[in-house]
Predict the structure.
Amino acid sequence: MYWNFSEILRGREDGRFSRADGPLSLEIGFGNGEYIERTARAERGSLAVGIEVSQWCLAKAARRVIAAGLDNVRLMLGDARHLLKWAFEPSCVDAVYMNYPCPWPKRRHAERRVTTNLFARLVRSRLVAGGSFNLLTDVGWYAAEARETFARAGFSVSAAERGSEPDCMTKYGRKWREMGREVYSAVAVKTGEAAGDFELEDDMGEHSAEFEPAAGERASRADKPIREALASLVGDKIEGRDYIALFREIFFAGDGTALIGIISVDEGFEQHYRIRVITEERRAVGRRATGSIDTIGCPYRTPGVRASLKHISAKTGVIF
Ligand SMILES: C[S@@+](CC[C@H](N)C(=O)[O-])C[C@H]1O[C@@H](n2cnc3c(N)ncnc32)[C@H](O)[C@@H]1O
C-alpha cells in the first residue's frame, strides 16, 4: 500500500492553525494514535490535531489515520511546549488532551512537566473561551499538581471523569489498568479572558551591542559591495532576552542569489533556516538587494528569526 502522508503531516510551511480552521482539538503526545483516531471519528466536522516528539509514533499514527480514511486529522512532529506557541494562533483550540504523559518525577526534570505555570498559561492563551485542558494519568500527585497549577492560571478546575472505557482507553491506559493502577484526571476549563494571557511578543527583546552595526559601518555600508557585506555576516551571533541566532554560512550562486544559513533558538526552540537574498547583480532594475526566507526550513517567525532578518537589514541594507 502507498502511504500518502502529505495531507496528514503538518509542517512549518503550512502556517499556523487559526480559528479559520474551524473547531479544533489538540492531542499532545498521541503515541500510537488510537485516541486521536477516535476523536476524529467522533467529531467529523472538527479538525483533530496531534503533536508528538517521537518520529516512530508519528509514522504509526499517520498510517492508522490513513487506513481509517480520516481526512480531519493533522499530525505534527515536535515538542508541544514549543509548537503550541508557534504553530497556533491565540484562542483557536477548543480542547487539549493529554493521555498518560510521563510525570517526570525527578526534581531536575520538573520543568518538562505539563504542570508548570508557563505551560498552563500557554495552553490558556491558545484555548477559546470555554475550551478545556484534559489530563489522564496514573500518577495521583501529578494530577493534583496539574489541577493546582491550572487553577492558579485562571482555569476552573475539576477532577471530573473524562469518560469511561472504552472511550478513554489508550495503549498506556490499558497497560496501567492491567497492572492494577488507578486512573486520575484533571479537567481545566478556560473561563473568559484574563489579563496577562500569554501572547506572542512583537518586540524582539534586548539586542546585544554587537548586533547593531557601528555608526561607521552604517555610513559605509551603502558603498560596500553587497557580496562583501553579506559575507561579513558569517560568524555573527545575536542575542535577545529569550533568543539567540547564529549566522553559520553563506552560499553564493552564479546568478547573483545568496543563501544565508542561520540557526536560531527561542527559549530552547531550535530552528535551522536559510535567508535568500537576490543581489543587484541579478536584478535587472533597482538599486537595492532584496531578501526573503527560503522555503527550505520554513521557520516560524519567532523573535529570533525576526531579529536575524533585522540584523541582515541593519548590516547590509537588504530589504525584506
Ligand atoms: C507515555 S506515552 C503515552 C502515549 C499515548 N498518549 C497513550 O496514552 O498511549 C507519552 C507520549 O508523549 C510523547 N511526548 C513526550 N513529551 C512530549 C512533548 N513535549 N511534546 C509532544 N509529545 C511528547 C512521547 O513521545 C510519548 O509518545
User: Anything to note?
Assistant: Confidence is low (pLDDT under 50) at residues 201-223. The pocket of S-adenosylmethionine is lined by residues 28-31, 51-54, 57, 79-81, 99-102, 170-173 (CB under 6 Å). The chain has nine helices and twelve strands.
